[in-house]
Amino acid sequence: MKNKAAQSKAWATVQIARHPDRPQYLDYVGEIFTEFDALHGDRLFGDDGAMIGGLARFDGQPVMVVGQHRGRSTREKLQHNFGMSNPEGYRKAQRLMAMAERFNLPVFTFIDTMGAYPGVGAEERGQAEAIATSLAQMSSLKVPIIATVLGEGGSGGALGIGVADRVVMLSHSIYSVISPEGCASILWKTAEKAEQASEALSLTADKLQKIGIVEYVVDEGEGAHLHPEEVMQNLKSVLKQALAELTPLDAKERCEARYQRLMKFGSDNLGLTA
């Protein structure tokens, strides 16, 4: 009975993370940052509608902002490819982060994607290479990086902008190597066991904080879609705290701490079933 209740709670979190009225990346940008100026294109192939980034101010301080936007209407969803980035999206993010490093600007990334786009064209243009290059770049970037999971954090598509000094999750967001439906299809040959899979994946913010994958969890009550402005202000406070922790460190210290943060994952047998 206890196991069933735990499964229901995890599955409920998945449903809230996917709620159609949930605030999206550009909603947060408009509330938390000022003077946002989007920059386009990867200078290799084209622009990507799912990955949006540019210069902005955070409490008056110039910063670089990069994130995945899904869209709400059918037209917006098609324009932003449902938040699933092509290789040019990750290469655009790389270009913007290199610019941030050149001008010593902190980087804020916002994750909300089912995963990287798996289409034939994306694979032909080097989807895996683009994500791998992003991981390598972010691992050694000399400026502070703070990543926030807003809704769904799906697989390598999320991790492609998720390597950071500090990772924040909203309390009803999820972060996982695979969707519950995908996991269930592999383990039990049916997506109908997605609820059971959601518990097995330990994809909720509280569990990920417990095992050290994320540093901060922002409480959103019953869901950010119910009181978005309050949640956005709470998130802004956490981002300010995280930036204040990172700013005093010099680049070498920050990169070493980021490396140690990454290397500790899986080093302790903490378990995932509690």
From TrEMBL:
GO terms for biological process: fatty acid biosynthetic process; malonyl-CoA biosynthetic process. Residues 1-245 form the CoA carboxyltransferase C-terminal domain. Pathway: Lipid metabolism; malonyl-CoA biosynthesis; malonyl-CoA from acetyl-CoA: step 1/1. Its EC number is 2.1.3.15. Keywords: ATP-binding, Cytoplasm, Fatty acid biosynthesis, Fatty acid metabolism, Lipid biosynthesis, Lipid metabolism, Nucleotide-binding, Transferase. It comes from the Bacteria. Its main location: cytoplasm. It catalyses: N(6)-carboxybiotinyl-L-lysyl-[protein] + acetyl-CoA = N(6)-biotinyl-L-lysyl-[protein] + malonyl-CoA. One of its GO terms (molecular function) is carboxyl- or carbamoyltransferase activity. GO terms for cellular component: acetyl-CoA carboxylase complex. It is found in: Cytoplasm. NCBIfam families: accA (TIGR00513), AccA_sub (NF041504), PRK05724.1 (NF004344). HAMAP family: AcetylCoA_CT_alpha. Acetyl-CoA carboxylase is a heterohexamer composed of biotin carboxyl carrier protein (AccB), biotin carboxylase (AccC) and two subunits each of ACCase subunit alpha (AccA) and ACCase subunit beta (AccD). Belongs to the AccA family. Component of the acetyl coenzyme A carboxylase (ACC) complex. First, biotin carboxylase catalyzes the carboxylation of biotin on its carrier protein (BCCP) and then the CO(2) group is transferred by the carboxyltransferase to acetyl-CoA to form malonyl-CoA. This is Acetyl-coenzyme A carboxylase carboxyl transferase subunit alpha. It comes from Acinetobacter celticus. The gene is accA.
